[in-house]
UniProtKB/TrEMBL annotation:
Keywords: DNA-binding, Membrane, Transcription, Transcription regulation, Transmembrane, Transmembrane helix. It comes from the Bacteria. InterPro entries: Homeodomain-like_sf (IPR009057), HTH_AraC (IPR018060), HTH_AraC-typ_CS (IPR018062). This is Helix-turn-helix domain-containing protein. One of its GO terms (molecular function) is sequence-specific DNA binding. It comes from Sphingobacterium zhuxiongii. The chain crosses the membrane at residues 6-24, 36-52, 64-82, 94-113, 125-147, 159-179, 191-212. The keyword Repressor does not apply. SUPFAM superfamilies: Homeodomain-like. Residues 254-355 form the HTH araC/xylS-type domain.
């Protein structure tokens, strides 16, 4: 019963994590590796459920599957991604050699009855020893490298710190199991050992899920600050009615990312164009602006344009005339620019320029 609960929990968490990852725009290499990790965990779990419980006569198919030889390299690649270290195709191939050899051995083992009966014990001990050493080597190596690495966001660094702990625990458990089997010369598996491994896999799936969920939430905090606007609330706090949580986050990220790119500086910019580019309806966009900025779409956009104009006017090297500045900031006419600037700043662009130059 405990195995079924673990299988079910891992499958659900991995599926939810992969669903969340669909809504993360501009995925980093780390995000993609987290996706790959959850996919491998999902396949590993389904594979085990089939050959351990649904087809118990083929349990050896699960026992010799080399999934365990993938997790160490993924940890290392994740570290390199977070620390912005390049990984060449040659390096990827070198780190993948143990898995490739394990896969070849797995195919030979399950296809040859003679080999399976003659070398079963030796093969189990060899495979599990290599897995245990892999789980011991990679975390220690990553931990050593991380001490000399530049500090990245704590949120991302926690990903491989926790992974190091999980894989180290797994390695100690696996190597202890191998030593016991070498002494006892008994079967290579036991219910207690299986529960331990799948419980660690469950913790790993939670780690991947939590990371992707955090990446879905965090960009909104960072990007809303870069807009230099006073939002009435954190965009995460107020829901958009009629959408699931994941859909809401996707819509919010699309809108914020689009604004951060300063697309509003185009004189052809409009809510219709924004709705078409983002594939989000006009009412939803208007609702977002009203909900989080307590103002209309047009007023918020004009406010952003005026802030851009202020940045240009504050620049000591500013050399545009007012008409050019108006077009540069997305206004179609000098009159519209003057009117909005006066409403926003309480003075004319020329007066603002003069005040700014007094500071130098």
């Amino acid at each position: 019963m405990i195995f079924y609960l673990l299988y079910f929990a891992i499958v659900i968490i991995c599926t939810l994590g992969l669903q969340i990852s669909r809504y993360i725009p501009n995925k980093s290499d780390t995000d993609k590796l987290a996706q790959v990790f959850l996919i491998i965990l999902l396949i590993h779990t389904i594979h085990a459920a089939i050959f351990r419980d649904l087809l118990p006569g083929l349990v050896y198919v699960d026992r010799t599957a080399p999934f365990g030889l993938i997790y160490g390299p993924i940890l290392y690649f994740t570290f390199c991604s977070i620390e912005q270290r390049n990984v060449t195709k040659r390096q990827m191939l070198l780190h993948g050699i143990p898995f490739i050899l394990g896969l070849v051995g797995h195919l030979v083992f399950i296809s040859s009855y003679t080999f399976r009966m003659t070398y079963r014990m030796e093969y189990y001990l060899l495979l599990y020893s290599i897995m245990g050493l892999s789980w011991l080597f990679y975390p220690i190596w990553v931990f050593f490298l991380s001490n000399s690495a530049t500090n990245r966001a704590r949120f991302e660094r926690r990903l491989y710190y926790y992974s190091v702990i999980l894989i180290l625990v797994s390695s100690i458990f696996m190597l202890t199991l191998v030593l016991n089997r070498m002494i006892e010369r008994s079967g290579a598996d036991a219910a207690s050992s299986g529960v331990t491994i799948f419980f660690i896999m469950l913790l790993g799936s939670l780690l991947g899920y939590n990371y992707l969920l955090g990446k879905l939430r965090k960009p909104i905090h960072w990007d809303i600050q870069s807009l230099n606007l006073s939002a009435s609330s954190n965009p995460l706090e107020k829901p958009l009615p009629g959408f699931t949580y994941a859909e809401q986050q996707s819509i919010k990220l699309k809108i914020i990312d689009y604004l951060v790119e300063k697309s509003y500086l185009d004189t052809e910019f409009s809510i219709d164009k924004m709705a078409k580019v983002l594939n989000v309806s006009k009412p939803v966009i208007q609702q977002f602006f009203k909900l989080h900025f307590q103002d209309s779409f047009l007023k918020v956009i004009n406010s952003l344009r005026i802030k851009e104009a202020c940045n240009s006017l504050s620049d000591e090297g500013f050399d545009m005339n007012i008409e050019e500045l108006a077009l540069h900031c997305g206004f179609n006419s000098r009159a519209s620019f003057y009117r909005n600037f006066s409403q926003e700043m309480g003075c004319s662009p020329i007066e603002f320029r003069e005040k700014s130059m007094l500071k130098y």
